[in-house]
Amino acid sequence: MRRVPPKARAHRSTSQRPLKIVVTGPFAAGKTTLIETISEVAIVATERDVSEHASEYGKARTTVAMDFGRLTFGEDCSLFLFGTPGQRRFEVMWEILSEGMIGFILLVHAADPRSLEEAAHIFEEFKRYADVPYLVGVTHSDQSDTTAEVLIEAARAHLDLPDEVKVVVCDPRNKEEVKSLMLSILFEVHRRIEAKAVAG
Amino acid sequence: MLKGTLDDFTLSDIFRLTALAKKTGRLEVERRTGSGRVYFREGDVYHAESTKSKELLGSKLTRSGRVTEKQLRRAVIEQEQTGRRLGELLIEQGAVEEDEIEWAIRSQIEDGVFDLLRWDLGAFVWEPDVEIDAEVPLTVSVENLIIEASRRLDEISQIRKKIPSADVVLAMAPRTPDGAHQINITSEEWQVLVLVDGRRSVEDIATSTGAEAYQTTRLLFGLMNAGLIEHKQVPVGDADESDGESSTSLRNNVVELQPDVDDDIADVEGDERQQAVATPPAPPPPARAHAFRADPPAEEDGRAGERGARRPRRREDREETEPSEREPKSTPRRYKGPRVDRSVVVRELAGLFSEGIKPRPRAVPSGDKDKAPAPTQKRRVEDDDQVDPKLIGRMIDGVKEL
User: Fold this and answer.
1) Displacement of CA A122 from its chain's centroid (Å)
2) Which residue in B has a C-alpha nearest to residue A94's C-alpha?
3) In chain A, which end has fewer C-beta atoms inside a 10 angstrom radius, N or C?
4) Cβ–Cβ contacts within 10 Å for residue B255, how many?
5) Using one digit for the tens of pLDDT, what is the confidence trace for B153-198?
6) What is the least distance, in Å, from the CA of A128 to any CA of chain B?
7) CB-closest option in B7, B88, B399 to A183
């Protein structure tokens, strides 16, 4: 029987370098739901009772630090999803969570005008952190009297988005729609890497 | 040092931030009914313990059939004489392979973290750079621990459909399952099965085995699914009266079949049930577990004594609440222990973990360092040398197939 002194061996770890997409947006925009819809990992209790706006938004719980989801494609290929806390008092967490992201999804609550105001602030912050692909998802469109086209145009105008940035109406509970958002980010990452390689 | 309450950040949040920032140190969590410690090395966990997760290394190895009682006894005697690590002695004896010790250590870590992750209330203290000398140099990633905790929670929700509470009394099935000519059970299952006598409750059995309540309940669930045991609806009081071993003292340890609602409730000030229920006497620990106790890791920061003095009440001191009176998880509760200003915690936590996050090196062509991006320049995804187009391609294919 071989004996290996414990101290002589290096620590083994299963940690991976995470490639991640950050899901951000104002309070009650649907970030946690989006991650839950597609993640293979059950989200473990990151939400807390809220004290502000709860009744107005019909939301009694909020994310205080981050949500975490994961998609695994084979042994050495994982994509992590991080949801940010929506309330400004947790803003300090955003930059931490954005470290190393390959893209971000900004969600906006269609039925709440303040959501767009808040989204503009979040958007400015996230653009500052890194130059990565992003898109905007307008949620809760079923709670709004406005058409999808008008909602998209309103978001585009308010956030002052360039034409090439995708803005879509989406239901974070719908897996196919969430997949579409993820694919848009991944395609754009791929395109940018390829473009750089071609440019030399 | 950083202090805060679990109202500010959940433990899973803190775990993830610690992993993200690759921090080394000790996270100590404390509440009225227990405490726990988790040691991180560069963001991964290498030791975890809680007052409710206390199955010892020797117990894990014997219960799983990896080591015999005799082998363990021999190693324990030698350990007492030499002061060496139990795992090291068992490997030297030829009783186990190194990977079996690693399995047991990993299981201990998972048990400890699983227990702690269910806590909603309490206070935490983060002490950077505090380390201990671990039994085996094994680390487990936070991600894997959280996945394991999620898996266990799912499993518990399934188990509760058949074993809804720790007071359920189980009995052997009067006949073999349909069509069964031969029954194969594991050593672990056998140890649990022999305790099923129509009088002991699930809680009694869990305590008698000395194993984690979760592990024992899981085994019972499996035996029940196999048709080997079944419910026996005997009032708990009757069972105690007729049982020569009397399970009264055993009941002082509560089996957790669900997220830690009862302990959270116990932390709430003014809970009337707490005042109505007298604190039960502390039961003696299971003899086998005590005899096979492996030395806890020694703290290298020389503060073991100080920490020991601060150790909160053990599991035996807990105040019990009746399961039927448990409040729904969503009932607002507030931790009433020492508190600090939330904004201070947020700022400190952000600063603490930001410090550990270093910008990833960017791809700079050799001989072209002058053109490297300025430190203030935004990171571009296409400049990230770890973002490989083939990897992204695989992710695209993977997402399409979801």
Assistant:
1) 12
2) B350
3) C
4) 23
5) 767 777 888 888 888 898 988 877 776 677 777 878 888 888 998 8
6) 7
7) B399
Residues in Cβ contact with B276 at an 8 Å cutoff, skipping those fewer than 6 apart: none
Q: How far apart are the first and last CA of chain B?
A: 43
Q: Which residue of B has its CA nearest to A42?
A: B150
> Whose CA is closest to B363, among A191, A197, A21?
A197
**What ipTM did this prediction achieve?**
0.81
Contact A53/A20 with Cβ under 8 angstroms?
no
CA distance B283 to chain A (A): 33
Q: Which of B88, B91, B387 sits opposite A193 (nearest CB)?
A: B387
Q: Are B14 and B27 in contact (CB under 8 A)?
A: yes
Share of chain B above pLDDT 70, in %: 63
3-state SS assignment for residue B351? helix
Which of these, B211, B217, B349, B395, lies nearest to B292 by C-alpha position? B211
Q: At what angle do helices B86-93 and B69-82 cross, to 10 degrees?
A: 120
Query: How many other β-carbons are positioned within 10 Å of the β-carbon of residue A99?
Result: 21
Tell me, yes or no, if B344 comes closer than 8 A to chain A by beta carbon: no
Q: How far apart are CA B118 and CA B29, in angstroms?
A: 12
- Nearest C-alpha of chain A: how many angstroms from B221? 22
